[in-house]
C-alpha cells in the first residue's frame, strides 16, 4: 500500500500534465480553433522540433540572464534580510521602502532600463533581480526576527556575542526559510527575464515570442513557452531538493545545538 502511494505520488505530475494536454487538444479540436490563434499540442511539438536550434540558443540566453539576476538576489536578498531581521531600526527604516518598491510593476521599469543601459541582457538581469528580490528578503527577515527572546537572553548570559547569535542560531534557522523562498524567487526571476526580453531585448525566449507573435506563428510562441516552462520547472525542482535536504538537516529547533556550541 505504501509503495502504491509512492508510485502514485511520483506519477501524479505526469498524469496531470497529460490531462492538461488532452483538454488542450480536445478544446482546439472541438471549437475548430485556427493554428494562428491557438495551435494544437502536435503543432506545438512540431514547431519545437523544427526550431530547436534557435529555441535552444535563446533558451540558454534566458537561462543565463535569469541566473545572473537570481545570483544577485541570493546574495543581496540574504544580506538585507539578515539586516532587517536582526535590527528593529533597519526593519522600520528599510522594510516599508522594500514593500513600496515591490508594489511597482516591473514592466513599467523596463523601458527606463532600456534607456539607461540599452537593448540586451542588462535590463533582463536587472528585472529578474528586482522581481525575485522581495521573497528572499521577506523570508530571511522572518527567520531572524522570529528567534525567541529567551534564546537571545540565554546566549547573552553565556557570554555570546551578536555574531554568535547570528551564526549559531540565526543562520541554521534561516536556511529552510531561505530555500523555501528560492523556489518562488527563481520562477519570478524567469518572469522578469521574459518581460524584459519582450519589451527591450534583442535575444532570449521573450524576443523569440515577440517575433513569432508578430508573424502570427502561434506554434512557435507556444513552443517557446514550453521551453520556459521546462527551464522554470527544472530550477524549481532543484531548489525543492535543496529545501528538503536542509529542512531535514537543519531542524527548526536547532537553537539548542547553537547554544551548546556558543557556550
From TrEMBL:
Location of this chain's protein in the cell: Cell membrane
Protein keywords: Cell membrane, Membrane, Transmembrane, Transmembrane helix, Transport
Membrane topology listed for this record: Multi-pass membrane protein
Organism: Methylobacterium symbioticum
Residues spanning the membrane: 54-85, 97-119, 125-147, 175-200, 220-239
Protein's UniProt name: Riboflavin transport system permease protein RibX
Superkingdom: Bacteria
Limits of the ABC transmembrane type-1 domain: 59-243
